[in-house]
Design brief:
With about 325 residues, the chain is of the alpha+beta class. The chain has three domains: about 1-115, Sandwich (Immunoglobulin-like); about 145-240, no CATH class; about 255-330, no CATH class. The protein is about 35% helix and about 15% strand. The protein contains twelve helices and eight strands. It has a five-stranded mixed β-sheet, with no helix packed on it. Helix 11 packs antiparallel against helix 12.
Amino acid sequence: MHQAFLLILSLTLSIFLLPVSALTDNIVINKQDYIFGETIIISGKVAYIEGKFVGLQILNPSKSDIVLIDQFFPQKDGSFSKLYKAQGPKWNETGSYTIKLVYSDEVTEKEFNFINTKNSKTGFDSPSPKTSIKNSTDFELSIKEQTNNPKFRLQGFPDPQIPPKFYFDRYEFEPGYREWFDEVFPDYSLIEVVGYKKTLIPGFPNENFSPWYYIDRYNNEENYRDWFDSQFPGKSIFDVLEYPESFFQKVPEWIKNNAKWWSSGQITDAEFLNGISYLINEKIIIIPQNYESANSISQIVPLWVKNTAGWWAEGKINEKEFLKGIQFLVENGIIKV
């Protein structure tokens, strides 16, 4: 099992070959023990190299499953500070969890203790109710380092695939959710954090539609794109929605390395498919949602799909063609989602 996990790690977090000694300092966390819903602040320092990602994973006590995965750029001085919620369906075991940090070909690990105290009656999946973070200096510093925009002071919140109306309804009808929000965002209103700013076009953007809805229409409907550009000259749709363009990249650039290795036989079908399945489920890779995943009869991957992955990695075809192959694998049950 451990060997299989390392193969998946190689697939999902190949942050690529850099000079040795890129990872200089150990991981620092804000405390050693956590309960369900608490915030984990992870800090550290690397030997900074322009344009290189840091890869981060949190593994369950048996190291048989990834409960969290992220990639990010460090600051110019090599430092970084990130925060994550200890919550979600994969945080279901009490025990010693492992933070694994990958930068260049170097890996460092740190363990912490987690106790699953989740109350099934709350119905919360994300984010969790009240956590004791108000007076945490480390938390405030970490927030300041990440962004001055209240929209993205927490990892993955708000989710660009969720309409603002969803958050408005939860705030109105769930007291625990409202308490959590008011504690984490004491200086901001709900609309400042999850809503759209008003524009000169009445009802646009509409809070019943997610940012992804608008981005998808802009990218795929020529008439819609022409209308938007005529109404907002000099502004991108990302400016109007107040979401960075990087949030809507369907396939992270670093996946190309894995596609290249797969197409050339350096990693197996199983290694590639397991990693892609995880990335789809975590919404790191976005594929069209009008599909039904079939029960897999065969794990044989058609040669044309593997060729497509290699051509995409070499820049011979575009991302859309690569995603058609991935969608085929999902529709035929070869990739489980």
